[in-house]
């Protein structure tokens, strides 16, 4: 079977160091340093097994560095996280442009954000962006154009307390074959204040929220025309 030159080139790039890390959290007007309140990995590679426990907060093949910091975040506020190719990269080096796919954010209420592994139930999605067919633009492309800044609205109606805030990209350049999708995620450790507690989100488990055969995970993004794209995982929780 022959594959297109663009697909072949993208497949070759998947083996190169074209990966990414969520490095910093900006909250309440404070730009926290690299790795402050985030379990950043020592390697910028992906997780490719959706059934792995490491799909929650990374680790395993990408050993993460603990942080004792829990960052204060106001419910109803907007935070930003920075994505970078490596811990030393700047806003011009986010992720290779071939790594097209969706960008999402999840939260999980925990007792101790500095020690909770994130594995298991309790996760709810708070933002997502996928594919815009009108402009033929993927969310990762927008992220690169924004210098690696992912903007996330924290729901105003959740309970106060400590949470894990999980940013995620899924690179789909090699997703036409099994286990070809690349998952990039990190967990920030936050303490939410000012929430009304008026709503309780429905939650999912990580691993468990994704299947390797989900149409948003096992997909050939080089189809022309590109069909409507279904972002994997649950619906976005809103107040």
TrEMBL record:
<dbReference type="GO" id="GO:0030245">
    <property type="term" value="P:cellulose catabolic process"/>
</dbReference>
<dbReference type="Pfam" id="PF03443">
    <property type="entry name" value="AA9"/>
</dbReference>
<dbReference type="GO" id="GO:0046872">
    <property type="term" value="F:metal ion binding"/>
</dbReference>
<feature type="signal peptide">
    <location>
        <begin position="1"/>
        <end position="18"/>
    </location>
</feature>
<dbReference type="InterPro" id="IPR049892">
    <property type="entry name" value="AA9"/>
</dbReference>
<protein>
    <recommendedName>
        <fullName>AA9 family lytic polysaccharide monooxygenase</fullName>
        <ecNumber>1.14.99.56</ecNumber>
    </recommendedName>
</protein>
<dbReference type="GO" id="GO:0030248">
    <property type="term" value="F:cellulose binding"/>
</dbReference>
<comment type="similarity">
    <text>Belongs to the polysaccharide monooxygenase AA9 family.</text>
</comment>
<dbReference type="GO" id="GO:0004497">
    <property type="term" value="F:monooxygenase activity"/>
</dbReference>
<keyword id="KW-0186">Copper</keyword>
<keyword id="KW-0119">Carbohydrate metabolism</keyword>
<keyword id="KW-0136">Cellulose degradation</keyword>
<feature type="domain" description="Auxiliary Activity family 9 catalytic">
    <location>
        <begin position="19"/>
        <end position="226"/>
    </location>
</feature>
<keyword id="KW-0479">Metal-binding</keyword>
<dbReference type="InterPro" id="IPR005103">
    <property type="entry name" value="AA9_LPMO"/>
</dbReference>
<keyword id="KW-0964">Secreted</keyword>
<keyword id="KW-0732">Signal</keyword>
<keyword id="KW-0503">Monooxygenase</keyword>
<keyword id="KW-0624">Polysaccharide degradation</keyword>
<dbReference type="GO" id="GO:0008810">
    <property type="term" value="F:cellulase activity"/>
</dbReference>
<keyword id="KW-0560">Oxidoreductase</keyword>
<comment type="function">
    <text>Lytic polysaccharide monooxygenase (LMPO) that depolymerizes crystalline and amorphous polysaccharides via the oxidation of scissile alpha- or beta-(1-4)-glycosidic bonds, yielding C1 and/or C4 oxidation products. Catalysis by LPMOs requires the reduction of the active-site copper from Cu(II) to Cu(I) by a reducing agent and H(2)O(2) or O(2) as a cosubstrate.</text>
</comment>
<keyword id="KW-0325">Glycoprotein</keyword>
<keyword id="KW-1015">Disulfide bond</keyword>
<dbReference type="GO" id="GO:0005576">
    <property type="term" value="C:extracellular region"/>
</dbReference>
